[in-house]
Amino acid sequence: MATLTLSTLDKKYGGFHAVKGIDLEVADGEFVALVGPSGCGKSTTLRMIAGLEDISGGELRIGARVVNDLPPRDRNISMVFQSYALYPHMTVAENMGFSLKIAGRDAATIDTAVKDAARILDIEPLLERRPAQLSGGQRQRVAMGRAIVRDPDVFLFDEPLSNLDAKLRGQMRTEIKRLHARLGSTVVYVTHDQIEAMTLADRIVIMKDGRIEQVGSPDEVFNRPASRFVASFIGSPPMNMAEATVTRSALHLDDGTEVPMPPAFSVAEGRRVVLGLRPDDIYPEGHGIHSESGHAVERRELPVHLSEPLGNETLLFTEFGGQSWTARMLNPRAVKRGEALRFHLDLSRAHLFDADTGLTLRG
Amino acid sequence: MKASRLPPHIMLLLPAVIVLAAVVVLPLLLSLWSSFTPFRLTKPESVYQFIGIRNYQRIFTDLDFWIAFGRTVLLLTVALNLEMLIGLGLALLVDRQTRGQRLLRTLLMFPMMFSPILVGFQFKFMFNDNVGLVNNALQSLGLTDKAIPWLIDGKLAFLAIAAAEIWSSTAVFAIFILAGLMAMPRDPQEAARVDGCTPWQTFRYVTWPFLMPFAFIAMTIRSLDVARAYDIIKIMTDGGPAGRTEVLWTLIARTAYSDARMGMANAMAYVAILLSVAFTAYFFSKLGKARAQVAGDW
């Protein structure tokens, strides 16, 4: 186990600046998730940590060692690939023991290590099979087994669950979480799925265009997003947004609607802002999640364009501020299309962002 | 009228069957028959004289035949192994190029565009002991002051022939292996690097097992090619001098056309074909195994 330190880490491909001087400190035993849309530089960052990509600038440390110029084999890391990257001509046991074999360990040690890992991952009956004879989920387990066997300083995961179907993805997510709790290892986990990041990570790093937008615990990035981008990326369904101009003590939305200024914000008159409200914070009267006591609640009659019943809740789609907004209805009842409901907008839980910079305006 | 008609599926197959019979089956049967006769081109009636397996018996005690047989196997082994090594090296080098790869691939194919006869003439000239390029170069470099008899000494002539073969056909291996490299997923190689492999170990344990089926396809094709080697040798040495570079097919052709002993030549040809079949079967089984190993949907 070890800490991991990225200092102004930079990656350029010719004229393309993929990673723009990012700083990040990963504590010993910490689970850090890198999330962001495609092309944000998260995979490149991970591959630089692995040593599969050259580092164009900055410094990378594992523990106290600067590893910028070390080949992957000298970094004592293991990596789980999106495509599993198993060796097709080797059995499961050979796949898992390969790194130890290369390191020159004796057969008995390898055998013990492989069997231990197989027991943890529940793949003991598969040890003599070849990858082609395994299902996707089983391959994923083998790939993880191969990573565990090495007992590395840092585990790297590159979108390990994206090739699995939704149900299996959920199972493996739990599995990875349990594994991390058991091994207590340092993990860097790349995903484009914010739910994976939220559920697994101690801290989430949200990246965009080669830069870090925000680093924080799942609670922080969800409840106190640093920017409009983070707010729209984290949370499902995504946060509702509408652009507005600040008037005296009110927000003048672009379609002419006016809502009171959310409390605890003081913004200069005339400034262009974006109002953000999570689906949790707009709901039909009596169907909300949070307590309203002491909150500034705005009540509006709005028609429902579409509803998506999920059983325990129903997502309602309506229009507000010229945008399509999603509302979450708890303890749902059947809602007809076009039916007008009395919605509560909990403005005490609203977010405001600067319309130009996208940065959060703090109350 | 209707009753005498053949069923349509037979009717549809008939043209193909007739053509095949006329151009393949009939000559094959005829040559097989003639291998049991003392058929001489100069005495056409001898084709009707059945002598049983006497030709074959004679082959089995004919030292010249077995020397030619052994030389063919040796040429096959030397040429194929070197072609594979050089082809692999070329493929790996070309694969690393990101720019100009198309051009390199085209250049790689160049030797294959020349007729083996022309390759034979060119190498005959290059290895000529008086005016050849090779001796000239060796002498200019001061490595020797003698005129090395490249095409006269049996061992040297064998090397010269192997060089011509390798030059003209290494591209087969290079192209097949390159195709393998291009089809190969990169992730397992990266996984191997992370798993602690040096570049050589990555190649040995991950890349090569994947390339093996491609190499064996090339092996199969080329083993058929070299087993029937004739043209280059015919031009460069004509099996000589004094039979020092005689291989199976130069011997068979000489027996058939110079000595006019067609019956005997046909018997030899059937033994030679067994050699080809054996090599092909061998490489095919290796190919099957190698493919089974890397099979799967990665």
Q: What are the SSEs and their pairings?
A:
The complex is a heterodimer of chains A (363) and B (298).
Chain A: E1 4-13, E2 16-26, E3 31-35, H1 42-50, E4 57-62, E5 65-66, E6 77-80, H2 92-102, H3 107-121, H4 136-149, E7 154-158, H5 166-183, E8 186-191, H6 194-200, E9 203-208, E10 211-216, H7 218-223, H8 228-233, E11 240-247, E12 250-253, E13 258-260, E14 272-277, E15 282-284, E16 297-303, E17 306-309, E18 313-320, E19 323-330, E20 340-346, E21 351-354
Parallel strand pairs in A: 3-8, 3-9, 6-7, 7-8
Antiparallel strand pairs in A: 1-2, 1-4, 4-5, 9-10, 11-12, 11-14, 12-13, 14-21, 15-20, 16-20, 17-18, 18-19
Chain B: H1 8-34, H2 54-60, H3 63-96, H4 101-109, H5 116-126, H6 133-140, H7 154-183, H8 187-194, H9 199-227, H10 231-236, H11 248-258, H12 262-294
Helix pairs in contact in B: 1-12, 3-7, 3-9, 5-7, 7-9, 8-9, 9-12, 11-12
What are its keywords?
heterodimer, A: 363 residues, alpha+beta, Rossmann fold, OB fold (Dihydrolipoamide Acetyltransferase, E2P), 6-stranded mixed sheet, 5-stranded antiparallel sheet, 8 helices, 34% strand, elongated, B: 298 residues, mainly alpha, MetI-like fold, 12 helices
